[in-house]
Input
Amino acid sequence: MDNTQAQSFDVVIVGAGLAGAALACVIAQGDPQLRIAMVEAQTLSNEAPSLHNTVQGFDARVSALTLASQQLLADIGLWPEIVSQRAAAYRHMRVWDAEGTGVVDFAAAEVNQACLGYIVENRITLAALLNRLQSLTNVHFFNPAKVAGLSESVAALNKRAAGFNNGEQQRCLDLADGQQLTAPLIVAADGANSLLRQQAGFATREWDYHHHAIVATVQTELPHQHTAWQRFLPEGPLAFLPLGGDHQGHFCSIVWSALPDYTQQLMALNDDEFSQQLAAAFEHKLGAVQSVSQRYSFALRQRHAVDYVQPGLALLGDAAHSIHPLAGQGINLGFSDVRVLAEELLRARQRGLGLGDISLLQRYQRRRKAENLAMMAAMDGFKQLFGHNNIALRWLRNAGMHGFNRSPAIKRRVMLSAMGLH
Output
């Protein structure tokens, strides 16, 4: 490959999803001298999403953004744009057991907050991030561009052959069209099935939940009351998450986790049949389900990288960890990764340190790994606790839920932690 084809940057980010785009925004605005490359295989659109107030007018993919995630987006100046489009603040959360009397209620007032978080369509958050990135002169897009793999640049090989290496060690990314991008740091933000993670040989621990999730948007007879609802059924949890779009609050995003055979049966129903089954499974808490959007189904799998970093290479967001969508915490963990990695990179720039230095990257790993593992263990614990119908276990979990609900101090600590307000 000719040397002229290699393009040099300070940071190359692979994956322009929520986590990758957020990292680019934070570091590009934090240090306008940073030269950042964004590599994304899918064609990115500049158009703002159309926001029709029908079940088909919502993105099926939504996130329950914590106040910590909201603050990250506010710090880079994007929150007003997101709220002006469509975001639903939820002030309450109700969790109950279908196989007993256990109920837990959370209210924002218990922690002196206006809300517990926001339900936002992923496409709205992503559009705001990409619009900002495209206005920044120090961010260069390679899109659509597929990654061929990691290698050493011709320049680095020539230096090694000559017996010297002045300057910072470079990592090299080969694109399928023959272009080569070099940088001291490459960030893999390319999702749960990260190609870069696999090619770099990162070990993972992973397991299949043997469940599938159905996601869709529904319109309900009764308003959602600015409440996130979650019912634990024997076959898996069912969540109704409040959406914006109308002042009365009749739109919700649903996530229904169930065994594959049952999921297949539900997906085969027509809309009216599915709506009836869904309302019954939800105990008609919001009355009848009046309409439902196109449904999507996907397998649930938990995955965690044993290490997040190598010299000059860091995993971010779902590339490092993917969890059960039980509490909508996936992107919140990703945004926490963004905040910490950005802090380490910008501090290194101020001190004149190399961005690919392993000690810098290991600090990022130490700061994030424990919290990510704790959240993953909690989600797996909930899944196991509610996934068994043993009578003794059922009694224990219902008694525990009652006790927890009557313990304001414990509940307050849990709520603050879940909201990212440690």
Summary: Residues 1-46+134-202+307-384 form a domain with the FAD/NAD(P)-binding domain fold (CATH 3.50.50.60). The first strand starts at residue 6 and ends at 8.
